[in-house]
Design goal:
Elements: H1 4-9, H2 18-21, E1 35-40, E2 44-49, E3 54-58, E4 67-70, E5 77-82, E6 86-91, E7 96-100, E8 109-111, E9 118-123, E10 127-132, E11 137-142, E12 156-163, E13 170-175, E14 179-184, E15 189-193, E16 208-213, E17 222-227, E18 231-236, E19 241-245, E20 260-265, E21 276-279, E22 283-288, E23 293-298, E24 313-318, E25 331-335, E26 338-342, H3 358-367, H4 373-384, H5 387-391, H6 414-424, H7 428-445, H8 452-467, H9 473-484, H10 488-493, H11 499-518, H12 524-543, H13 557-567, H14 572-588, H15 597-616, E27 624-627, H16 632-642, E28 652-655, H17 665-681, E29 686-689, E30 694-697, H18 705-720, H19 731-737, H20 744-750, H21 752-763, H22 766-772, E31 777-778, E32 781-782, H23 797-809, H24 814-827, H25 838-846, H26 854-858, E33 861-863, H27 870-881, H28 884-895, E34 911-913, E35 926-928, E36 933-935, H29 942-954, E37 960-961
Parallel strand pairs: 27-28, 33-34, 34-36, 35-37
Antiparallel strand pairs: 1-2, 2-3, 3-4, 5-6, 6-7, 7-8, 9-10, 10-11, 11-12, 13-14, 14-15, 15-16, 17-18, 18-19, 19-20, 21-22, 22-23, 23-24, 25-26, 29-30, 31-32, 35-36
Helix pairs in contact: 3-6, 4-7, 6-8, 7-9, 8-11, 9-11, 9-12, 11-12, 11-13, 18-24, 19-25, 20-21, 28-29
Length: 962
């Protein structure tokens, strides 16, 4: 180590003091022990030697140049930092000691840092920050400007207090006069404290009392921060230097004395790859190794710029070094009004926060059987109990990928985590200990509001651990609870990375349900917790336009679970079990994402049956309708208004002068006719959009709230009674029923022409927009107060489009829809209709028109017939010859509607029956719509079959039996 005293002599506080002159000064080459750490404070300079001892020299008026020894009883000093009048030291064991230099006893005091191993410590004038090996921060001292980060009303702490870092994996800390910084492993910069000159880089001069992200340094790949009294310098991995804060003495290097409130690149150093920076009180140093040159700028009246002058300079200029440094410089320091450089890179700068890597995992595996297990357990505890430690692990180092951390890029290489945990799994003892620490220590400590993506990495890493802990279901439950506690913004961060998380939680939920079904174990609480996580992740996925497909959330075990309930015996001993299983099923319906469409329909049907049973216990009301085909619409509305009814009962319909009331096909036919008549007879209620052939509520309809209420009842009853009825409503209606927000995309379906015009408004040039002469009106109505007086411009056109869509779907039909919603909920008392997605709900109610006619024959059954009988062969020959329209007529003839239920024609279970009537050629085919039976006479020829069959389906209304 070259004598620091001699190097200081060229650009130091006082060229004639003992630092530079005295041969017996502790900083000269006369000392045998090599210097390993240096800190320069406001009024002192201190060093540590490789023998674990040190010295410091005060620079105040009374003790100027006086040197004192530094030592710790029973421990060696590793590093230190100087405040205004005190020194804080870190021992090799990670303990922290503080020495008050105003007290002449100079006895260090051991500080309590909760038993953690501290690796870095930095001092401002009167505050201190310490970083532990497991990523914890501690602060103490004065807090006048928030420099402790502990809140606005805290005056200060005499001893270290933990500072919540929200899981940030930290690379280093820095402190200025009364401000503080922390740097994450991926280059995120956090600042707090005094900001009177903009030294926090936040774009203003407001003090901060807690960790605040310096957004303007995002993606800059910051690797080092140094602080002066009221200015800050940051160094990027690419060798660029940014400075901000006070520029009074030119210490920012921008060729001016102006303050900067945001980080600004030092242009004079552009093109020179800087590898080290250091800030003194009012000056800054930067080292460029390719030139073997230190550049300095700022206050220089005491020689601290090293140019042989006592003037300040506001641009970086080379320091005049002796020939001893021709081979290069190892480390530079600055503090107070001093500057120091060394030949060597001092080791205390390289100690970093603990992270999980291959080397650590391999050592645990190889040493777990040979070294004391207690020692390894302690290390595992320290590593896996800290979110910061895991958040800093398994980073993607290729092309500095982790420095580009964003909402879409976690900065992780999860394949590294997967391989590491698979290796851990080879030693069950180690893996079990890791799982125990994660469950008992890590998960309970997870923050509900982690700091951005870096603080969220633990939620992406833990699923990889859970993959190799398949039997530790309780750990998965605890982890699921932690995910559920995250706020929506943090959950949003997971959207790009959570497929593995979905897979793990899905697997665990399935296992719990399987155990309940096969072993009849009570895992109700565990199922609810894990399924709740799936639901939260589904919501994130849904708002992200389904980054992964919905089937990733479906739990197939639910279908088996429901079938199992249905097969349970009705004995007295089974009642409690059935009740218990029904309770868990009911609770799980709160999380519809786990059910596929078929299973939702099963759950809906089961609940329908339960509601009918409930209605039977108090049979005071029924649900009957008497209508005439010629006045069906009027009769229906009148019947719904005049007679109280219990919609939990299946709807029974009787057409005047026809068969008695029956469920099934007659009810389906009623809804089919109702839907047709509502469009023909009541144009006052529903407005037809010609460009889409879809209908919407009439904004200025003459029908009152009650009319839409009655229409809602009919729609709700159709859904409850599992009848398909096409009202030609857009998907937007079903989104509204489910409380979802509507957008311009929804208007494109209802009114493509209007939506296209609005889309053009969003993209037109300003001059074209002005020619359009638009204002905030829609269909002659002001959509905002004084809308006719507000022209649409490029600045408010987004609001115009959003308000226009809101007017069409919401404001203009507010009363109409509110009536419809109340009626719909009454007509469908089974509240589980809210389980369905809008697309599923419209499919259930409106049916589909994808006809795979081959499925009808494939699934057909026969009574008193065989599939090979000639009459059956002739029937299918005739059916195949029919036009598409005639085939739909046959569907209406059999079911009451030409629209298909969910599942298509495969769900139509056609049964063809031979009644063995005498003289069959005299009879027409007859449909038993309630059971989908076709009574087909055994005709003597295909020609007679064709004639009778085509006639029947051509005049099918009323051509049926009960």
């Amino acid at each position: 180590m070259i004598c620091l005293g001699e190097t200081v002599r060229e650009f130091d506080l006082d060229q004639d003091d003992a630092l530079g002159k005295a041969e017996n000064h502790p900083l000269t080459t006369a000392q045998k022990a090599r210097i390993t750490a240096v800190s320069v404070g406001k009024c002192m300079i201190a060093v540590v030697r490789d023998n674990g001892k040190g010295d410091f020299c005060l620079q105040d008026e009374r003790d100027r140049g006086k040197t004192e020894n530094l030592s710790l009883k029973g421990e060696k000093i590793y590093s230190l930092s100087c405040g205004a009048d005190y020194i804080v030291m870190v021992s090799e064991k990670g303990n922290v000691f503080q020495l008050n230099c105003q007290k002449k006893t100079y006895i260090p005091r051991l500080l309590n840092v909760n038993g953690t191993h501290v690796i870095q410590v930095v001092c401002g004038d009167h505050h201190t920050i310490a970083l532990s090996r497991d990523g914890q921060l501690f602060t103490w001292g004065r807090n006048l400007h928030g420099q402790l980060g502990q809140g606005e009303r805290v005056p200060g702490y005499p001893d270290p207090e933990p500072l919540l870092t929200r899981g940030i994996p930290l690379a280093m800390i820095a402190a200025g006069g009364e401000h503080s910084f922390a740097l994450s492993l991926s280059g995120a910069v956090f600042a707090w404290g005094k900001n009177s000159t903009g030294q926090l880089g936040l774009g203003d001069k407001k003090d901060r009392h807690g960790l605040t992200l310096v957004k303007s340094l995002d993606m800059k790949r910051t690797v080092y921060i140094s602080c002066g009294d009221e200015h800050t310098a940051v160094l990027t991995k690419g060798g660029l230097v940014f400075t901000f804060g006070s520029g009074e003495y030119g210490q920012l290097g921008h060729n001016s004395n102006r303050d900067e409130q945001r980080p600004r690149l030092v242009d004079e150093l552009r093109g020179s790859r800087v590898t080290q920076i250091a800030c003194g009180r009012h000056h800054t140093l930067a080292y460029v190794p390719s030139f073997k040159t230190i550049y300095s700028f700022g206050r220089g009246e005491q020689g601290q710029l090293g140019r042989g002058l006592d003037s300040s300079q506001n641009v970086p200029l080379p320091v005049q070094l002796s020939s001893e440094f021709d081979l290069g410089i190892g480390t530079i320091f600055a503090g107070g009004n001093q500057s120091v450089c060394s030949h060597e890179t001092l080791p205390c700068l390289s100690r970093m926060m603990l992270t999980v890597d291959d080397k650590l995992v391999n050592r645990w595996i190889s040493e777990c059987d040979s070294k004391p297990w207690k020692t390894l357990k302690k290390e595992i505890m320290q590593t896996f109990s800290s979110a910061s430690t895991l958040n800093g692990s398994f980073l993607n180092q290729s092309d500095d990928n982790h420095y580009q951390t964003t909402m879409e890029n976690s900065g992780l290489d999860l394949s590294l985590a997967r391989l590491a945990f698979e290796r851990l799994a080879k030693k069950e003892k180690v893996l079990k200990q890791v799982g125990s620490v994660v469950q008992e220590k890590l998960i309970p400590s997870l923050c509900q509001k982690p700091a951005g993506v870096e603080g969220m990495r633990v939620y992406l890493i833990l699923p990889e651990l859970l993959r190799v802990l398949p039997m530790d279901r309780e750990l998965c439950v605890k982890f699921s609870e932690a995910v559920c506690k995250l706020n929506p913004l943090n959950l949003k961060i997971l959207e790009s990375f959570f497929k593995s998380l979905v897979k793990v939680v899905h697997s665990t939920s399935t296992w719990f349900l399987h155990q309940m079904r096969t072993e009849q174990k009570d895992f109700r609480t565990s199922v609810e917790k894990t399924v709740a996580v799936l639901h939260k992740l589904y919501e994130v996925n849904y708002t992200a336009s389904r980054k992964i497909e919905d089937h990733n959330f479906y739990i197939n075990e639910m279908k088996l679970f429901i079938q199992f309930i249905g097969r349970m015996p009705g004995s007295e001993n089974s009642v409690n079990k059935i009740t218990q299983f029904m309770e868990i099923l009911h609770k799980l319906t709160m999380y519809p994402c786990i059910f596929d469409m078929e299973t939702k329909c099963m759950v809906f049907a089961v609940n329908n049956c339960a509601m009918v049973l409930t209605a039977q216990m108090a049979p005071s009301l029924q649900n009957h309708l008497h209508v005439n085909r010629r006045s069906l619409l009027t009769d229906t509305f009148q019947g719904l208004k005049s007679k109280a009814r219990d919609c939990r009962w299946p709807l029974l319909v009787q057409f005047e002068d026809e068969y008695r009331m029956v469920p099934g096909g007659v009810v389906q036919e009623f809804f089919t006719i109702f839907a047709r008549e509502i469009h023909l007879m009541e144009p006052r209620m529903l407005e037809l959009h010609e460009d889409s052939r879809l209908v919407w509520f009439m904004p200025e309809g003459r029908c009152d709230h009650d009319a839409y209420y009655l229409l809602g009842i009919v729609c709700g009853m159709a859904l409850y009674n599992k009848c398909v009825v096409n009202f030609h409503f857009p998907l937007a209606l079903f989104k509204k029923l489910l409380g979802l927000m509507l957008t311009l995309e929804d208007l494109k379906e209802l009114s493509p022409n209007v939506a296209r015009n609005l889309q053009e408004v969003l993209h037109e040039d300003e001059d074209v927009l002005e020619l359009l002469d638009l204002d905030f009106t829609a269909k002659g109505h002001e959509i905002v107060p004084n809308g006719r007086e507000i022209p649409v411009t490029k600045y408010n056109r987004q609001k115009y489009v959003e308000t226009y869509v809101d007017f069409i779907f919401n404001k203009s039909v507010k009363n109409q829809f509110s009536g419809f919603l109340v009626g719909f909920s009454q007509g469908c008392p089974n509240e589980l209709w809210t389980m369905f997605l809008p697309e599923e709900l419209i499919a259930l109610l409106s049916g589909n028109v994808v006809y795979v006619w081959e499925d009808l024959q494939k699934n057909a059954k026969y009574q008193a017939y065989e599939p090979t009988d000639e009459n059956i062969q002739n029937f299918w020959t005739v059916f195949t010859e029919l036009s598409e329209e005639k085939k739909k007529n046959f569907l209406s003839y059999m079911t009451g509607s030409d629209r298909l239920p969910v599942g298509g024609l495969a769900e139509i279970k056609l049964t063809i029956v031979n009644q063995n009537k005498p003289n069959p050629d005299d009879f027409y085919p007859v449909a038993l719509t309630c059971h989908c039976w076709l009574f087909l006479p055994n005709y003597s020829s295909i020609h007679i079959l064709r004639e009778k069959f085509v006639h029947a389906i051509s005049f099918y209304e009323g051509f049926a039996e009960q």
